[in-house]
Amino acid sequence: MSSTHVSTTINGQAVEYVCPNDASLLEVLRDQLGMTGTKEGCGSGDCGACSVTVDGRLVCSCLVLGVEAQNRQVETIEGMADKNQLHKLQQVFLEKAALQCGICTPGILIAARSLLEKNPDPTEKEVRYWIAGNLCRCTGYDKIVRAILETAKQLREEAA
Amino acid sequence: MAHIQIFGSLRDLFAGEDSVELDVKNLRELLLKLPAAYPDCQEEIDEGVSVSIDGKIINDDWFTPIRPDSEVVVLPRIVGG
Amino acid sequence: MSEYQAKEFKVLGQRLQRPDGIDKVTGRAKYGADTEAAGMLHGKILRSPHAHARILSIDTSAAEALNGVKAVVTRADFPTAAKGYEDVQDNCMAGERALYDGHAVAAVAATSKRIAKQALKLIKVEYETLPHVTEVEAAITVGAPIVQAGQVSKRVPEGYSDNVVRYVSFGHGDIDAGIAQADATIERTYRTEASHQGYIEPHACLATLNEDGRGDLWVCTQGHFWIRDMSCAVLGLESANLRVTASEIGGGFGGKTTVFIEPVALALSKKSGHAVKLVMTREEVLRATGPTISTLMHVKLGMTNDGRITAAYAKLFYQSGAYKQGCADFGAMPAFAPYDLENVHTEGFDVVTNRPRTASYRAPGAPTACYAAESAIDELCQQLNLDPLAVRLKNAAKEGTKSSYGPTYEDHGLIQCLEAVKDTEHWNAPLGANQGRGLAAGFWFNFGGETSVSTFLNTDGSITVTEGNPDIGGSRASISMMVAEEFGINYDQVRTTVTDTGSMGQNEPTHGSRVTFAVGMAAIKCSRSIKAEIAQRLAKTWDVAVDQVSWQDGKAHCLDASKGIEPMSLPEIGAIANNTGGPIGAHHGSNMEGAGVAFGVHICDTEVDPETGYVTVQRYTAIQDAGKAIQPDYVEGQLQGGAVQGIGWALNEEYVYGEDGRLQNPGFLDYRIPVASDMPMIDTVIIEVPNPGHPFGVRGVGETPIVPPLAAVGNAVSRAVGVRYNHLPMSPPRVLAGIQAAK
Ligand code: FES
Ligand code: FES
Fold this sequence. Notes:
By secondary structure, chain A is an alpha+beta fold. Chain A has helices at residues 25-32, 88-95, 105-118, 124-130, 142-159; strands at residues 3-10, 13-20, 51-54, 57-60, 73-75. Chain A is built from 5 helices and 5 strands. In chain A, helix 2 (88-95) crosses helix 5 (142-159). The longest helix of chain A is centred in the last third of the chain and has 18 residues, at 142-159. The mean pLDDT of chain A is 97. Chain C is 28% helix and 24% strand. Chain C is globular and about 90 Å long. The model of chain C has no long low-confidence stretch (mean pLDDT 96). In chain C, helix 11 packs parallel to helix 20. Chain C is built from 21 helices and 27 strands. Chain C is α+β, with helices and mostly antiparallel strands. Classes of the chains: A alpha+beta, B alpha+beta, C alpha+beta. Chains in contact: A-C, B-C. Chains B and C meet through strand 4 and strand 5 of B and strand 7 of C. The structure holds FE2/S2 (inorganic) cluster (2 copies). One FE2/S2 (inorganic) cluster binds at residues 99-104, 136-139 of chain A.
């Protein structure tokens, strides 16, 4: 398998890597770059644990090739907090106990941020459908959905 | 004498009795004296049992006291998930 | 003897944040697959494509010759397992026969995952396929292919194939006499399909094992002490020589209490001389780890016109995979546990088949039995036109009731849970067209088990707690809270850490709903020892008798007012520790008996689309007795998570085997667990009837929540459609077929 040299931006930082052409972006992030915050639950696009954004678009990084990141902006969970300042979603997830084991949490946070960027005032149903691709086996989703709705409210209040 | 209750499928191991009287003062004595009196139950005890003593499930603690009026029930070993 | 002492709590009951929280929302927390070692190799496992086959030969030479391959292992590389661990070993690596689709037959370690994968293709295994059986009904029938010969226990009744390997029965009274007293009776057969625990994190480990038998293992598990002991038993190692560290864990639910890949990774490491990382794919998780049982269950009940249950009988066949295990016990015992019955009898049969060895899944065995029992009760209520809640209240077990499995109950909260149903808005809300409301009660035993905790007073007065139970849902926070409560200090002054097997005494895994109860109790005992030690030292310091030193509001007080001594805080005591005898700490190792039983009652509303048979859950309420909720968010989380797993089992989740005995749906696309858009909010009501066996009244809460949902959903769907469904999951085709048959 031949490899390709890739220049990309991850969490605002210019990054270069050489990866096998068939390597997924998830594999590159985790195995080559040591960015293990993005998780692998299935490797087939069915669990959302590997959610990242590429040029602002929410994707399963297990379904994106490492080479496809060329000249793109990739955002992962490692870039969500601003230095030691947690993103509002991260903070509210902690306050509202929206995680148990936490393995789904990075993917759900990335997905939720992407929702709130597009729709600052989602209904419960919109939240549930948006994160329908992110499996959580521990929480039954209740506290996750509440935390996303609460964050949206707080962000709207701050913006107002 | 403590009154030990034996359940359906275990009864074969205790000569068909549904309860047995044994002079025991703790779990260790029970686990020693039961097979001494009814050798058929040794295998079951080796496979692992839990013993309910006065409504509490005891898995291992040999020195859990058994009083003369204690309710003692031998059960399969309780597991969890 | 009661441990419980009623008092006002300062810290308990608050919704405080967990110490591992920030690491988990920032992606810094290290789970099983998140670590590496220098010179590390990647392991991969070759799995049987056959449901049942004799392994005639394995030729690994071509794989070994591949550049980058450093070791290949088969069963020949394993020593004879310690007594009692033969099946565990055989399940990790097949011996003479592969017993199910997905059974490991060989493994490789190579310099990259790609090479390891390629090497698997070069291993030549010669199989002789054997007849197989995967379905419980077929397996018990005389003439069925026999999965394991010579395993039938003495007491198994005649009339079944040798796949029926164990038999248990429980109960008291006389079923025939009870039936004779009944005004109405019912006899039904129920079936449930196997589900999987479905944790999102696949099994993963990083193993090093040297030639001298010393090694280290990093692994995601519910219990690293058990992983150590099992790995050692399977590989012929000494426990002291294998240090196991538990990573953060991405869910377990019972499925991560045993070994699958760990001994294989260790064997590969020993043979290759390198550290080996082994991570399962999702397909491997579904094909080769922990599914739960599938069942065939018969129930017979009698009831009087006013709703008294006069007889309750259940006969349960539990299919538990390719190895003999005791699963049916845990259906037969809890089936009718919520009720005070004069005549009750349950029988359980363990059945082996060509399926993966089942692992525990939250209250293992109880949800299916509860489904059968509660469905039959509900149907009788409908027949007799009785209110299902009133009937459950009328028959409910109380303190002093002789349970259906033998022991007499201590105080518990079933009645309070049932009474709470009446007060919910949910129970009193109107229902629309095609909607139905189901109610079910459930029970789990809970237990304590072996537990070790150390606690230290630091020189600045803060408290370090070290324990050995992986934290899946916030237990480090709960334990810190209990210690803070005991000392009368702030939560922030206590930090609890989970340590490795080289640094702590034995612990049972995080299972059986035991951690908050047992580890919490051990931590409280450590705290009490430290307070006693402090009292000794201050008595000397103040020159008073020990009984003149008392602990109040986070400080040591001198009761002898004549001394005019100011109370001392922990920082002040910590600062002089070295002057008063050196570091202050305590260890508590014991067998934490005395866990209290936990009852729960669930209410479910469903709507059924009569055109498609598709079921939506409209509303759901889970009510449970938690004894004392240390951190209510985490208790609610357990109730909500368990309920949704149960809903998944009732509606979607199902292992589907083909004629060829192979699993047809080993992926999250086809093995579909509930997603957010399938679910409503899950309302919770926490009842607190203190457990007499715990200083703060704590009961385990983790398992009971998955017991009632199968029945609650089943009853809701059946009432919505007017057709009884006796086969789970109630997937749209099954529901539709029922509607059409009724027309
Ligand atoms: S790992 Fe990418 S969707 Fe599951
Ligand atoms: S918190 Fe465990 S999977 Fe979501």
